[in-house]
Amino acid sequence: MLSQHPEAIDDDLSSVQNEVRVGTGDIDTLCVDGDNNAVFIEYERDGNLTEHGLIQLMAYYGWFASDETHYAILQQIIRQTRPDFQLSQIRLIVVAPQIDDMVEDACWALEPSIELVSYTLNALPDGSVGIAPFVVLDTREAEHQRIIRLPNTEESHLRGHENLRPLYVELTRMILQAGPQVNRNFAPQYYITFTNSRGVFANISFRRSGVRLGLMVSSQIVGNTVLSPERNLPNWSWTMIQRPEEINQDLQAALTNAYQNRIQR
Question: Could you give the residue ranges of the DSSP H alpha helices within 165-248?
Answer without folding.
Answer: 165-176
